[in-house]
Structures are given as C-alpha cells and as structure tokens.
Amino acid sequence: MMARLKELGDENRRLKKMYAEERLKAEIIQEAIAKKWCSHRVELSLW
Predict the structure, then answer these.
(1) Above 60 in pLDDT, residue 2?
(2) Is residue 11 part of a domain?
(3) What angle do CA 36, 42, 43 make, to 5 degrees?
(4) Domain limits for position 41
(5) In the chain, how many domains are there?
(6) Which of 10, 20, 35, 36 is 20 to 30 Å from 27 by CA-CA measure?
(7) pTM of the model
C-alpha cells in the first residue's frame, strides 16, 4: 500500500509539473498575441 501511495505521489508531482509548463506556454502565447495585436493596431493608426 505504501508503494502505491508513493507511485501516486510521484505521478501527481509529474502531472502538476506538466500542467504548470502548459499554463506557462499558454501565457506566453497569449502575451505574444496581445503584442502582435497592439503593434497591428499601431500600424493601422499610422495610416
């Protein structure tokens, strides 16, 4: 039973790390989209 608890704890840590990495990627993508949108709006306002 203790071995199973350790396995579950290890898997939980792995999944939490994976989730954190994916959230970070999503945040970076959102920031890049926002910056691209802002620069596009600036270009349009210069016309």
Answers:
(1) yes
(2) no
(3) 90
(4) 23-47
(5) 1
(6) 10
(7) 0.68
